[in-house]
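Entry 0007
Protein: Aspartate kinase
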Amino acid sequence: MTRPVVVKFGGSLLGSPERNGLLAVAARRGAVVAPGGGPVAGAVRDAQARHGASDRAAHAMAILAMDQVAMMLADIAPGLALCATPADFSVAAAARRGALWRPSPMALGTDDLPASWDVTSDSLALWLAVALGAGRLILLKSAAAPEAGGPDAWAASGLVDAHLPRLAKRFDGEIALLGPASAAALHRALETPLRRAA
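Output (structure tokens):
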């Protein structure tokens, strides 16, 4: 059975001229797209600072922000099936459709993720990759990706959140950081065969 590929679509890419091309490539290749929270999650950070909400509340609000971005992307990219549960992903895969994750039904309330800003949509995308048994996670970024390094180096440089390196130890697939993201670069990454696990 083919293992899915999860593509994290960073919130910084919402205003990119590459946005539609990236989503179209993911849809054509049957990838699972995990959205960032973008400006909606930014509004959560601002609201927490202004009104004093707890990290637990802000974590839940940020996941709901990802839901809102997912619904917007589903409207922009109708080739992606909006999926909220493992059963939804199975239906999309059987139909050979790309999928777009609406995370709240799976991620809200789980004890598996710390309720803090150490966990952002990058870690949530990796958490989904673990849950789906994915073979690869591709983190799309607007910033240039380093030529070397892995999750620890990425977290140290602020490219991913602090929790991702810990979660990466539970993932038996490949993790790639792709930036500056373009449709052509994503197409090449999805064409690259998965390395077999040792």
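Curator remark: Residues 85 and 106 are 6 Å apart (CA to CA). DSSP finds nine helices and six strands in the chain.
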